[in-house]
Amino acid sequence: MKAIADRRHHRMAPVVLLVMALLITGAVYAALTPTSAGATVATQTDIDTGGALFQANCATCHGTGARGGDVGPSLIGVGAAAVDFQVSTGRMPMQASGPQAAAKPPVLDAEQTRQLAAYVASLAPGPSIPTADQVDPAKGDPATGMALFRTNCAMCHGATGKGGALTEGKSAPSLGDATPTQIYEAMATGPASMPVFNDANLTPEEKRDVIALLDGQKAGSPGGADLGGVGPVSEGLWAWVVGMGLLIGCAVWIGAKSS
Amino acid sequence: MSTNDSEVVRHADGNGAVGEQLPDRFDNPGLPPHRPRLTDTDPAAARRATRQVVALFTISILGTIGFVVAYALVPDGNTIASIRLSNLLLGLGLFLAMFGIGAAAIHWAKTLMSDREVAEDRHPQRSSPQDREAAVAVLREGAADSGIARRGVLKGAVVSALVLAPLTIAVPLIGEVGGHWRVSTLRHTLWERGKRLTRDPSGTPIKAEDVTVGSVFHVIPDGLREGENADHWIEEKAKAVVLMVRLDHADLREAEDRKDWSYEGIVAYSKICTHVGCPVALYEQQTHHLLCPCHQSTFDIADGARVIFGPANRPLPQLPIAVDDEGYLVAQSDFTEPIGPSYWERLK
C-alpha cells in the first residue's frame, strides 16, 4: 500500500485512475444490464451482411430496398420479429407460391437470420425480437394463458393448439413445434392470415402466459395417447372404426362355433 | 318380371293362398346332426385347448400382479409424464386381468365344455283355465269388497287423485320450458348508449389508439359480471360478444346509413353467427374474411359483414361505436336488430 501511496502524485496517476474508473463502470454496467439472446446489439457489419443476404434471397419478390414488388409486400416497418419468425420457421424464403407460405427446414442459419433481421429492422422501426426473459415459460401463468388462448387463439389453432383449416386452402398451423420466441413473434407481428395481437391487446406478460400454456402442452396428454388432438374427427374414427371393430370382432368370436 | 307374375297369380287367387294349401303347423325339422369338435375326437387337441385356457388365465393373473406392482411402485406423481406412465401401466394391468378371465372362460366353454345341443320347448303363454278363473274371482271379490260400484263419491275421489297426481311432474316441467319462451330476451343485449367495449376475458376498457390495423379484439361489455347480471352473466355474454378490428380506409366499404357506426376505420360486429349461433371468430387479417368454424359461413368484415360463402342468410349485426371523452371505445346503442340465428318472432 505504501508503494501506491508514494506514487499518487505521479504524472500518470490521473490517467491510471481514469482507466480504472472506466473499467469498473463498464464491468458494473455489463453485470447489471439484462442480457438476452434477442438483445444482442446489431453492428453496422451485421446490417451490411444482412443487406447482402437480402439482395440474394429476398429481393426478387420484396424488391431491392424491401419496398415490395409485384408478388411480395413491402417489408419496411415489419420489424426484426417478423423476419426472425418467417425465416426461422422456414416460411421465407418461399419455395413456391400457394395459398400461404409453408413451414419447412430453415434455409438460413441462426446467424444469417439475425443479420437479415438487423438489416430489415434498420429500414424502419418495428416489433423487435423478444428477449429470453419475455418468452420464459417458467415466468408465465398457464391458467391465465388458457383463458386468453380460448378467447383469442383457439378458434383457429384449436383448443389443443393442433391447428385447423381456414378458407381457400389456408390453414392455422399446429403450435406443437413452435419455439417460445416464434410464438411471441407470431402474436406481435401477425404472419399471413393471423391477426396482430399488439401489446395493448395482449400485454407482454399475457403473451408470456400463453407461451407458458403452450409449453405445458409439450409434455403430452396426461390421459394417454391424444389421437392427434384435432377433435372429433380423429377421435371418432378411432372410437367407431377401431373400438367398435374390436367389440364386433369379440362378439363374432364369442358367437362362432368351435371347429 | 317373374316376381310380378307370381304377384298377379296370388291376387287372382282371391284369398291370398298360393298354389297348394299351407299346413296348419310345420313339422319340427329337429336339430341339425351333431358335429363333433376337434377337441372331442382328438385328445391332443383337447390338451392343447386346455393349455390355451390355462395360458389365458395365467395372463389374467399376471395382469393383476402387474397392476398391483405398478400401483405400488409407479406413483402417479406430479408430472404429466409420470401420470401418463402410471395410467398406462394400471390400464394395461386392468385390461389383461379382465380380458384374460373373459377370454379364458369363453374359450373353455367353446372347446372343452359339452356342446351337445339341448332343446327346451317353449311352454304355452296362456295360463291354465283354473288359474284364470281363480284370478278373475279374486278381482271380482276385491271390487265387491271395496264397494266402488255402490259408493260413487269414492269412485270420483280415487279417479280425481290419480288424474291429478301427474301434475306434480307436469307443472314444473312445463313451467321451466316457459322460462325460455320469453323471446324478448333474444331481442336485447347488454349493449347500450355509452357502455364501454372491454377486452375478453380481462374486462379492461380499450382505447381507440390500441386497435391497430391488422389486429383483432374480442370484446365484452363493461361490467358484464356485475350488478343484476352477476348470476346469469354467461347468458348475457353469449349474446353480447363482439369482434372488433380496424381496417384501412382504402379497404373499408360502408353503407351510407352506417357511415357513423364506425370510428376511424374501427368496426365492431356481433360474434354470433346468423346461421345457428356458433361464435364466428376465425378472422383472416389479409382478406378481412371472418369464418364460422361450424358450417364455414364466411363474412366479409370490410363490406358490412356480408355473407360471401356458406349457409348463413344475413350479415352479422353491426354494433355502432364511438369514443368517449377519455378516449375509450363505447357503444352508441344496442344492436339495431336481434343477434344470432333466426327464430319465429324475429321480425314481429
Please estimate the helix content of chain B.
25-40%
Mean pLDDT of chain B, to the nearest integer, reads: 88
- Indicate the low-confidence ranges of chain A by residue numbers: 35-39
Rg estimate of chain A, integer Å: 27 Å
Number of strands of chain B: 10
Termini separation of chain B comes to: 58 Å
Question: What is the structural class of chain A?
Answer: mainly alpha
Multimeric state: heterodimer
Query: What structural class do helix, strand and pairing data of chain B support?
Result: alpha+beta
Helical amount of chain A: 40-55%
Short description:
The complex is a heterodimer of chains A (259) and B (348). Chain A is mainly α and 259 residues long.
Name the descriptors.
heterodimer, A: 259 residues, mainly alpha, two-stranded antiparallel ribbon, 11 helices, elongated, B: 348 residues, alpha+beta, 4-stranded antiparallel sheet, extended
Describe this structure as you would to a colleague:
Chain A has helices spanning 2-6, 13-32, 44-57, 59-62, 79-88, 110-123, 142-152, 154-157, 180-189, 204-217, 232-255, and strands at 164-165, 171-172. Chain A has 259 residues and is mostly helical. Chain A has a two-stranded antiparallel ribbon with strand order 1-2. In chain A, a hairpin with a 5-residue loop joins strand 1 and strand 2. Chain A is elongated and about 110 Å long. Residues 35-39 of chain A have low confidence and may be disordered. Chain B is α+β, with helices and mostly antiparallel strands and 348 residues long. Helices cover 39% and strands 11% of the residues of chain B. Chain B has 9 helices and 10 strands. Chain B has helices spanning 2-12, 38-41, 43-73, 80-111, 129-146, 152-164, 167-179, 184-187, 233-240, and strands at residues 197-199, 216-221, 242-246, 266-270, 282-284, 289-291, 298-300, 306-309, 321-323, 329-331. In chain B, the strands form 3 sheets. Chain B has a 4-stranded antiparallel sheet. Chain B has a 4-stranded antiparallel sheet with strand order 5-6-7-8, with no helix packed on it. In chain B, helix 3 (43-73) runs antiparallel to helix 4 (80-111). The two termini of chain B are 58 Å apart. Chain A binds chain B through residues 147-148, 151-152, 155-156, 164, 166-167, 170, 172, 190, 192-198, 200-201, 216, 219-224, 253-254, 257-259, and chain B through 37-39, 79-81, 83-84, 87-88, 91, 106, 110-111, 115, 199-201, 206-207, 209-212, 214-218, 245, 279, 281-287, 289, 291, 293, 296, 298, 309.
